[in-house]
Structure formats: structure tokens, C-alpha cells
Amino acid sequence: SRKVYLNDYKPFGWEVEQVSLTFRLSPRGTRVLSRIAFRPREGGRFFLHGEGLRLISAAIDGRTVTPEVTDEGLTCEVPDRPFLWEAEVEIAPEDNTALEGLYMSNGMFCTQCEAEGFRRITFYPDRPDVMAPFRVRIESDLPVLLSNGDPVASGKGWAEWHDPWPKPAYLFALVAGDLRAVRDSFTTRSGREIDLAVWVREGDEDRCGWALESLKASMAWDEREYGREYDLSVFNIVAVDDFNAGAMENKGLNIFNSALVLASPETATDRDFERIEAVIAHEYFHNWTGNRVTCRDWFQLCLKEGLTVYRDQQFTGDMRSAPVKRIEDAAMIRSRQFREDNGPLAHPVRPEEFIEINNFYTITVYEKGAEVVGMLHRLVGQNAWRAACDLYFERHDGQAVTIEDWLAAFRDTTGRNLTQFMRWYSQAGTPRLSVAEDWDGQTLTLTLRQHTPPTPGQQEKAPQLIPVALGLLHPSGPEILRTQIVEMTEPEEVVRYDVGALCKAAGLKTERPVVSALRNFSAPVMLEHDQSPKERAFLLRHDTDPVNRWEAGRALSRAALTAMATGGDADPQAWLEGLEAALTDETLDPAMQSLLLSLPSEDDLAQSLADAGEAPDPLAIRHAVEAMQDHMAETLEPVLTRAFEATAGTGPFRPDAAGAGRRSLHNACLTLLTRRDEGTRARETFARADNMTASLGALNALLSVGAGKDELAAFEARWQHDRLVMDKWFALQVMRASPEQATEVAERLTQHPQFAWKTPNRFRSVIGTLAGNAAGFHHPSGAAYDFFADWLLKLDPVNPQTAARMSTAFETWRRYGPERQARLRATLERIAASPGLSRDTGEMVARMLG
Ligand code: B3K
Ligand code: ZN
Fold first, then answer.
1. Ligand showing the shortest atom-to-Cα distance for residue 311
2. Active-site residue among 274, 283, 356, 811?
């Protein structure tokens, strides 16, 4: 398979002035007629992408031509002047199980073109830097026919759409089906009324309200915070059950995985509501960051994704709780992004080579990309941030641009030289930031050192610009130095604080302060800062920075758990005391209390052990976590009971942050208390539950102590006709299965009549979840590895994109001991050697084997 390199970028030799497409839809033989007006620029070899297309005819300016067609596209002699290209092709949407291009789901036609799916619809320069206005005519007996832009005209069996905004082909979309609309409207700040609609299958109409509320909130927010208004007369959202990703920002016609649109209190959890709100916002925000200004090439993916994730994070912080959101984002980077950045799949936020671009829709591009954008925001401050974003939109509206263009808007706004900052985009790997303290009774000296270990293809790393947010607390509690940003640029820097003066100013006795470093997770780095359990317990209680307060608790529980998992000396005392104080602190938000109560994931603990040079044993980790939960439940029983009762049933379900926070704490307490009461409370909760957050919380608590058989059956009986709820039912059983039984449980579920393995959501809920049950997945029998690999190989020819993504379950293989490593390597080698392996999975496996 061929590699593509950033440095090989060349613009396309022709400009596309206008695209007209006619679709004659039919499941086995859809005809696509294209009329494309080309105008020469540099010219050169005229190549149009095209895959799996049957070419019926082609003409230039009305004269038939016979282009040379290969697996990847066609080449043709073309005139050296503007010309009209016309072609007709045939495709079979019904046979398209890869869910890229035009495919079918439950009798409905839909598309997914990002990244390179349009070339499976017709011959076209399928690259993001070719932007053009589109006209689309759809012919079909189906009642609802949708495409991008504004509706132009329609009649019985046809509809026409026009999108005036030049767009790359990856933003093209078409939907045709027997769909129902739930409608609303939004008036923009300049007074234009936009028709909004969510299109769903019959029966789902009562689950669209939240998506519409979220959409209107997003539209208002983007006007208020970024001055960005919507630019078409309609905005359509379609829910589809078979979808590889979460959602897609096609211009004016967003297509969503139905799991990320449909919600009602009975069927969706608080988490689902929050995710729907965030993803609706994310796709909507792409209208400016991605669509109006797009990427020059796929290496620039973070240009739209990092920025849009950052915007949706800001939005969620504004709609809900900013500190809670920040803690969750920091936690996700530290576990999942660091895992990627420190393993064989590490790549820069802006990669420089790939075989299959779909393999680079990663947590590094998205979430680390968002961290980099956030650092930039904090470095330049709010006013310059807004001015630079305005400049970026103004300068590049209608263009396909690069990270350099993005940074130039900041350079030109602030006069700042961002050359070193650029390394955040080009260097892979997580910088290690160590903080060493020296105290002489008066002055505190901090020595900061940075160093980034090698990653695949990048041996040497240059120092990065690391904004380090620091604060100091007096050991009696008060803060003596408010958050200050040290902009570190060198491998080593020394910062001195005149603590005597700071204490004096605060009217306090001079004492050695407690350092709170990397506040608000000011940079995506691994902090190495030796602090005693006493200092951590102090920060857990007193830090003014919510992220570091949480982090102090994390550090305490992590230390205790890793010690327990390796048979070392575990002293959870400081952790438990700190937790007790947090749970009884009435000034703390329940959502925050719930976060403090959560333990690091088993995978995080495995990584911590690996970082400390030990081979983790996932079974020992599971036992340590369970022992810790028993310990927490026992020592904190009275406090947990009080918090559990205080958060019980408070009126009708509303999916807002306050309600969600209370329910989250309630469920966290329930899970622990279930270890003490034989499941009494959980059974009662399950029986009384009137919302999915409560039922699933209770079911989860029961399954995690090996109970809940009857409840599982009752749940299935009640929800068997609801595919989204059934996904939860499948996943929970695999997630909560004991290490010995996990593979068996997953295997049994694959025999369930509703195990529709070609639907990605269902595949992920069973097979994907098995990899999330770390102790089950890494059980020494090796059964899970074989089972998982067999299913990946079965899915691969059907849906390579989803198979490739799921293969990342193996990315941590090198962190384990020799026996597991040998088995994992053999499994990866078996996958790699299997005949006909897709390009997608082939690339992933080769990278993992290194
Ligand atoms: N841009 C899409 C993702 C497309 C995935 C292609 N493999 C959704 C998003 O990030 O908004
Ligand atoms: Zn996106």
C-alpha cells in the first residue's frame, strides 16, 4: 500500500467552477450523472478519483471520451481551456457494507464521504482543496429526498437542492428514505429565520427534542462567542443506525449515528444527553471551522478537528460546569491520549505520512489538537484570541488552508513569534515535565525540566513551549500565590519565589508552601512532581484549582492502588480521609464529589505501573480495585449512605447539569454501598427507576457484585425492541463480566438473535467492550485475544474502517509481561498475515508491530 506524505502536496491543476449531480436511486443499481465545469490552472495529468464505480459513459463538451480507468480513478486527455465534464456511473448502495460513500441503512439511502468516500459515488478530484458549489437532483420514489444547501424545487419522485457555498466533496451528503421530521426554527441575530429539522424513523419522533434544543443553543452560542451566524435557510439533521463514526458535519445536512441524536429520559442516560448536546454542537460549529474554512489536505485534519473540539468543550463548559468539564477532558487526555502518544501508534497532531487517512481520526488529532488550541487561547488571552479567530475567518473564508495559516492569524494579531509553538503540531509524544523543589526557609526554588521520549520516526525532540500554571498555598490553607503562568521554552528553567514576602503580604507566618503545579492542566504533559501523601491530601482539601484538587485525589488513590496491585505497602488512609472531607463538604458540587469518588481506570493503573517499569498484571489490578472499593464502602459507609439519600429522587428528570451531577453521585454511592447490602438498595432502585440513568446505574451496581440476573432479564424484556437501549444491555454485561467469564459472556451474546454484527454500534457494544474489560481481555488463558482477533478478521472485509479502529485494542501490547506479550504479538502477527487484509487494518497492525 502506498504512503502519502505531507511534503508531496501539490495543488490540483484545475479549478472546479460548478458541480451538478443527478441521482437515480436504486439499491442495486443507482445511476449517478455528473456535470462538472473545469477551468485550467497549472494543468498537468488530469486524474479523477473513483473507486468501485462502473463507468457507463463520459464526455467532454458533449463529445464522448474513453478515459483510462484503474482501481483508483481515471485519467483522460483534456483541452487546455475551460470545459464541461459529463459522466454517468453505476453503483450498488445495498452492497456497500463499508458504510463509506452511498450506502443503505434500514431501507434508507445515506452517505458518508469524509474522508475519501465521495470517490465511491462518482469520478471527482476527491481532495479537500477542491471547493465548488453543488447542485443536486435526486430521483426516487422515497418520500424524503435531502441534500446539502437550500431546497430549490421538488415534485413527485424528485427533488433539487442547491448549495451556494463552495465546498470540498467530503462535505457532500444525500439522504433518501421514509423519514419523519421533527421541526423547529431559529432566528439569527441578523433576523433570518432558519428552518430546523431532525429526520428520524417512524416511532422515534418523541426522542428528538433534546437534539433540537441543543442545536438552537449551539447556534446562539456561536453567534455570541465567535460572531458566527448560520448561512443557509435550512439546517437538517438525520439519524441513521448504521454509521462508522459519531456524526458528520455535511453542509446543511448533518448525518448522525442515531445513538447521538435520539434521547428521552426513559432511554438515554445523563451521559448520553451530555454527549448529544456536545456532538450536535461540534457538528454545528464545523459550519465555520471546517466548512467555510476547510483543510488544504488531510494532514491538516487537526485544523478543523482540534479547533472544533476546543469550541465544543468551551460550549459544554458554558452550558454545564466549566471545572467539571475541564477535569473530564484532562482525565481523558491523560488516560487515552497519553496511551496513544506513548505507544506504537504515536503520531504528531499534524501527521506527516499515512496510508489510510481514516486511521488518523484519533484522540491525538482531536483531543490533543484541542489542547494545543486551548494553550494558544490561554497564551494570547481572550481579546487577542477573538481578534485572531475573526481574522482567520475573514482571511480564509471559502479557502482550504493549513496550520501555518491558522498560526499566522495569531502571529499577525499579536506580533508573537509562534515558531516554537508550532512544535506542538509537528512533534509526537508526551513531554515529561519534572518539578523539583528547593526550600531554604525563605525562598522556594523550582527547577523545571522538560524532555520528550522518542516516538516512531522521531528520535530527537526539541524543547517545546510549555505554559506551566503554578500556585502556592500556605500549609495552614490559604493561597499565597495565585495562578501564575510560567512560559517554559528551554529544557531546564529555574523559578524563584520569595515566600517570606508572599507570607508577609498575606499576614501569615513564613512556612514552606505547598506547590500546585500544572493547574487547570495548562499543557498536555506528564507532570513528575514528588509530593508526599500529606501534601496531596492537603491539596485535595485546599487547592483553589478544581483540576488539581481532583488530581491530588487521583494521585493518592493511584499510589494506593498500584501498591496493592503489586503486593507493596498500600496506605489509603490519606485518600480516604480526603474523600470523606470532600463528601461532607457542602460547598462542593455533587458532580465534583462524584468525580472525586471515581477511581482511575484499570487501564490507567496498568499504564502507571508500566511507566514505573513494572509489567502490569490486569488480574491483580482488578483485585486491587475491588479491594479498594470494599475498603471505601466499609470506611465511608455512613457518609456514602447520607450522600446516597440526599441525592435520591428529586422531582421529574431534567437532563441539566445539576440533575445529572446529583444522579452521578447517587449512582457512585450506590455502586459502593451495593458491596455492603447484598444489593438491596440497587434492587429497590432498579424497581422504582423512572429514567435510564437510574436503571442502568442500579443494574451496573448489581452486575459488579455478580448479581442482577433477574434484573438483566427484566431489562431485556422491556427494551428488546429498542436498538439503542439494547446496545447498553449488551455492553454492560461484557463490561461487568468477571475476568474468567468475560470471553464466554461476549461469545454467548454474539449468538443472541439481536447480535447484528454488521451494525457498528452493536459490534462495538459486544466485541469492542470486551477490550474495555481489561482483566477479562488480558486473562492469561488468551481466549479473549483469539476471540477478538477472529471477530476483527470477520469484520475487516465487510467494514475495514471499523475493524481498523478496533484493532487499537492491541496498542498497549508491549507494556505486559513476557507471556502476555508473546500471545499478543502472535495475535497481531496472525492478523497481519491473514490474506486479503484491508489497507486500513493492515496499516494499523503494521504500526503496532513496529
Ligand atoms: N468529521 C467527522 C468524522 C469523519 C470520520 C471519517 N472517518 C465527524 C467530526 O469530527 O465531526
Ligand atoms: Zn469534527
1. 2
2. 283
321 Cα: distance to centroid of ligand 2 (angstroms): 22
- Any idea which ligand is nearest the CA of 114? 1
Q: Which CATH class is domain 432-523?
A: mainly beta
In this structure, which topology does domain 720-850 adopt according to CATH? Zincin-like fold (1.25.50)
pLDDT of residue 657: 96
The pLDDT value recorded for residue 134 is 99
pLDDT averaged over 10-residue windows placed end to end, the chain, 850 residues:
94 98 99 98 95 98 98 97 98 98 98 98 98 98 98 98 98 99 98 98 98 99 98 98 98 98 98 98 99 99 99 98 98 97 98 98 99 98 98 98 98 98 98 98 98 98 98 98 98 98 98 98 98 96 98 97 94 93 95 98 97 97 98 98 92 94 98 98 97 98 98 98 98 98 98 98 98 98 98 98 98 98 98 98 98
Residue whose Cα lies nearest atom 10 of ligand 1: it is 305
User: What mean pLDDT, rounded, does the chain reach?
Assistant: 98
Q: Domain 294-426, what fold?
A: Neutral Protease; domain 2 (1.10.390)
Cell 480507468 sits on residue: 69
DSSP 523: S
In CATH terms, are 4-261 and 432-523 the same topology?
Answer: yes
Considering the segment(s) 4-261 as one domain, its CATH architecture is: Sandwich (2.60)
Task: Determine whether the shortest distance from the Cβ of 358 to ligand 1 is under 6 A.
Answer: yes
* Distance from Cα 705 to the centre of ligand 2, integer Å: 38
Q: Nearest residue CA, atom 2 of ligand 1?
A: 248
- Closest among 42, 40, 36 to 60, alpha carbons compared: 36
Ligand 1 within 6 A of CB of 114: yes
The torsion region of residue 679 among left (phi > 0), alpha (psi -120 to 50) and beta comes to left
Supply the DSSP string of 377-411, one letter for each residue: HHHH-HHHHHHHHHHHHHHHTT-EE-HHHHHHHHH
For strands 101-105 and 253-257, give the pairing: unpaired
| 8 A C-beta contact, residue 235 and residue 196 | yes
DSSP of 191-202: S-EEEEEEEE-T
Q: How far, in Å, is the centroid of ligand 2 from the Cα of 210?
A: 20
**What is residue 208's predicted lDDT score, i.e. its pLDDT?**
98
Query: How far does the centroid of ligand 1 lie from the alpha carbon of residue 248, in Å?
Result: 5
What is the grid cell recorded at 569? 505497602
Q: Determine if ligand 1 sits within 6 Å of the CB of residue 543.
A: no
Burial (CB < 10 A; 0-12, 13-18, 19+), residue 461, is middle
CA distance 654 to 8: 52
User: Do 239 and 262 form a contact (C-beta atoms < 8 A)?
Assistant: yes
Mutation test residue for ligand 1: of 126, 361, 806, the one with most atoms within 8 Å of CB:
361
For the question of residue 829 being annotated catalytic, the response is no
**Residue with cell string 467555510:** 292
283 in contact with ligand 1, CB cutoff 6 A: yes
| Ligand 1 centroid from CA 245, angstroms | 6
Residue minimizing CA distance to atom 8 of ligand 1: 248
Q: Determine what percent of the chain falls in helix, strand and coil, rounding each to the nearest 5.
A: 45, 20, 35
d(CA 600, CA 598): 7
* Residue 163 cell numbers, joined: 448549495
Dig out the grid coordinates for 780 from the structure.
492469561
The pLDDT of residue 571 is 87
- For the chain, which residues make up each domain, given as ranges? 4-261, 294-426, 432-523, 720-850
Beta carbon of 245 within 6 Å of any ligand 1 atom: yes
